Amino acid sequence: MAWNMVDEREQRVRFVIRASEQQRNFSQLCREFGISRPTGYLWWRRYAREKLAGLEEKSRRPQHSPQRTLATTEQRIVELRQQRPDWGARKLQPLLAEQGVKLPVITVHRVLLRQGLVRPADRHEAAVQRFQRAAPNELWQMDFKSPKGWEQAVGPLAVLDDHSRYVIVLAQTGTTRSAAVREQLQTAFLACGLPQAMLMDHGTPWWNPAAASGWTELTVWLMRQGIQLHYGRLRHPQTQGKVERFNGALEMARRRRGLPPASGRQQWLDEFRYEYNHIRPHEALAMRTPASVWRVSERRYDPQPPAWDYGAGAEVHRLDGAGQLRLAGHRWPVSQALRGQWVEVKRIGEQLLVYYCQSWVRGIDLAAQRSTAVDRWAQPSICKECGDNDV
């Protein structure tokens, strides 16, 4: 009977029976059964020692595994995972190393697998491409988290540095009102300094869909500090990829760890922010923590900034109470959010470019007698910096 048509144990029994009859040369018998001489002798010795039980398939697993993770070490990995159920092997490994337990990431992952601590949701592919600003405080990303699971009208407000992923602000404001957001930003500016630019979506309170310019009192307050403002593309949250990724980590922590009662909610957020900045290593930072990369901005916050200096020779006009520019016998709408503010007008032939601080506000075509608002969407260069696959 051919080798592949019978049970392997039965084949071994037939072999030792034929070998015991000694009717054929041992080498010829091995060739007939399609095995090597060492294998044949192995079967024969097992049969002589253990009879038919010796012909059972033996486990190839070593009886001793010097490389097997010690039980105490394995227990420590389990404890850390239970303390931080939203952390994977890559983030647990540096924390173990700080405690004197140096293991490869794959070993930590295998321990988690053995203990049944890896869920399907934990398995995801890394982003194929990352973009980030060259230095801390060049760009901050700002966003409100979804209210789902937070028992309030809106989730926490997060402000995150694009370069270092350092979380500047994490606060449960309970509202999107401008005053509440301004209070959080003012506290952050006093402690951390000012960024060069900020990136947001088209949401309240930093965007007014009813206004041609989209600007609000909050955005004007930011621009008076010399902060350039950029807005992500509509229905394209990947533009603010880093703060969206942070919101994902925050949501995973909420689900895995649970939230305290409302009275202890902000303390929970403060502790999570500290862990995210100072303890949790980040893959995009070569497993360093955001706090080890970020630094305080050298640009200081001024609660009462002086009027913007447009420079000598600039053509400057003050907008009226309706946010209109009175020029050449016409009233040109600029922005109600800028009512009473000074703007600069740059002339290029029949075209007028209206600027507030560093931002281009409005385009006026004298020949066509037409005024056009400037789209406040993130420009292509900004989108490239932020990246659609950003984390």
Describe the structure.
- This protein has 391 residues and is of the alpha+beta class.
- It folds into 4 domains: 3-55; 71-122; 140-293, Ribonuclease H-like superfamily/Ribonuclease H (Nucleotidyltransferase, domain 5, 2-Layer Sandwich); 316-373, no CATH class.
- The chain has 12 helices and 12 strands.
- The strands form 3 sheets. The protein has a 5-stranded mixed beta sheet with strand order 3-2-1-4-5, with helices on both faces.
- Helix 1 runs antiparallel to helix 2 (26-33).
- The protein is elongated.
- The two termini are 61 Å apart.
Question: Which labels suit this protein?
Answer:
391 residues, alpha+beta, Nucleotidyltransferase, domain 5, 5-stranded mixed sheet, 5-stranded antiparallel sheet, 12 helices, elongated
* Poorly predicted runs of 5 or more residues: 1-6, 377-391
Mean pLDDT: 82
Largest sheet: 5 strands, mixed
Radius of gyration: 34 Å
- What is the CA-CA span between the terminal residues? 61 Å
Say how many strands there are. Answer: 12
The proportion of residues in beta strands is: 5-15%
Helical proportion? Answer: 25-40%
CATH architecture of the largest domain: 2-Layer Sandwich
Under CATH, the homologous superfamily of the largest domain reads Ribonuclease H-like superfamily/Ribonuclease H
CATH topology category name of the largest domain: Nucleotidyltransferase, domain 5
Q: Would you state the CATH class of the largest domain?
A: Alpha Beta
Sheet with the most strands: spatial strand order: 3-2-1-4-5
Shape descriptor: elongated
Number of domains: 4
Please provide the ordered H/E string of secondary-structure elements. Answer: HHHHHHEEEHEHEHHHEEEEEEEH
